[in-house]
Amino acid sequence: MPASFDEKKLFELFSGLVSTDSPTYGERQQADKLKALLTELGFEVTEDSAGERLGGTAGNLYGILKGTDPAREPVLFSSHLDTVSPALGKRTVLHEDGTVTSGGDTVLGADDAAGLVEILEGVRSAISSGRPYGDIEVLLPVAEEVYTKGSKLFDLSRIRSKTAYVLDMSGNIGSAAIKAPSIISFKAEVKGRASHSGFAPEKGINALAAASRAIADTPQGRLDEETTFNIGTLTSGEASNIVPERVALTGEARGFDHEKALAAVLSFKEALEREAQELGASVSFEHTVEVKAYSVAEDAEVTKRFLSAAERIGIKGRTVTTHGGSDNHTLTAGGINGIVLSCGMYNVHSVNEYTKLPELAKGAALVRELILGKAGGI
Question: Domain span at residue 268?
Answer without folding.
Answer: 182-291
